[in-house]
Design a protein that fits this description.
3-stranded antiparallel beta sheet; two-stranded parallel sheet
Length: 156
């Protein structure tokens, strides 16, 4: 299995403010796993409170690459994940992006959604929320209008 990745910074339309600070972007690392012509994708989102960085995720991925290159489709996620987890403690975003990509890759190979691979029933669609962060009160009406497709707003 071949691992590749790309660091990226997601720029926000508006500054995103929470009690512990305001930011204008979130760093991410996108991951792609390839095996036998199939591709699986994952993402490590890195808000500051996780205390992971693009550099730390990439360093972890470089170590994980040694484990992943020895596996091919079809593979057992249950055999791979403990080895990935044992690389180092913490690194949860890095581990999650590998886990997500493994599930995506296996699902594509088996032509099944992940819930079927996990032996679960098809989930029902749910409404999701979007957060209007702490910030300029004058922008709230505009933000609410822009988010009119969402049924649940969380206002900080």
């Amino acid at each position: 299995m071949k691992l590749s990745y790309a660091p990226y910074s997601l720029k926000f339309k508006y500054p995103f403010g929470l009690a512990h600070g305001t930011r204008t972007q979130t760093d991410v690392v996108y991951v792609k796993l390839e095996s036998d012509g199939f591709y699986g994708y994952g993402e490590a989102a890195l808000p500051p409170y996780l205390e992971e960085t693009q550099s730390s995720v990439i360093a972890f991925l470089n170590k994980a690459e040694e484990i992943l290159k020895n596996h091919h489709l079809p593979f057992s996620i249950a055999e791979i994940i403990p080895n990935i987890d044992a690389i180092a403690s913490g690194n949860n975003a890095a581990k999650a992006c590998i886990d997500i990509a493994l599930h995506d890759l296996l699902g594509k190979f088996l032509d099944k959604p992940v819930y079927e691979i996990l032996g679960l029933e098809k989930p029902q669609s749910k409404n999701t929320s979007v957060t209007i962060s702490i910030g300029d009160l004058n922008l709230i009406p505009q933000k609410i209008q822009e988010l009119s497709d969402f049924k649940i707003l969380k206002v900080k």
